[in-house]
């Protein structure tokens, strides 16, 4: 029976390394590009992933999974680790960074900035998971599926954290009597 590429890498066969790159490079690149959404970041990640694959080649068991599955799982785990490392828990400063500074431009810009600061302050009271999901969604522009991949959470859990977080912000706004923002958040969380 022929040995797999990973088994040959584990045995130190140099030609197997190039064969692995040729056969699985596209798969690993597409996963990295899709999850990281940045070519430079993806290139770095692909290098780290292949190093990880080579280090763990001896752990591959063809009775447990296919070679493609084994490589994809290593890639996915490393990418999630990388995203987690770069995605810090949001704090009030990260929300305020996206605000328009009230510089006397227009009355509307000043009003939007004040509203955003009020919401950012209220978000301090959210649970960490809700803050993180809302940060990734609102500030970073991630889709729910991208948040799932980044945080290694089921899609339903991500949607629940987003919805409950928005509802809690709405309730906090209502309790503080900030009615204009309440109506806007009701539209989003409905």
Could you describe the 3D structure shown?
Helices cover 74% and strands 0% of the residues. The protein has 190 residues and is mostly helical.
Under the CATH scheme, the architecture of the largest domain is Orthogonal Bundle
Helical proportion? over 70%
CATH homologous superfamily placement of the largest domain = Winged helix-like DNA-binding domain superfamily/Winged helix DNA-binding domain
Q: Helix count, per DSSP?
A: 10
The CATH topology name of the largest domain reads Arc Repressor Mutant, subunit A
CATH class of the largest domain reads: Mainly Alpha
Which structural class matches the secondary elements? Answer: mainly alpha
Which percent band covers the strand fraction? Answer: under 5%
Straight-line distance between termini: 59 Å
Q: What is the H-and-E element order?
A: HHHHHHHHHH
Any idea what the radius of gyration is? 22 Å
Overall structural domain count: 2
Unreliable residue stretches? 96-103
- Mean pLDDT across the residues is 79
- How many strands in all? 0
| Main pleated sheet | none
Outline, from the CA principal axes? elongated
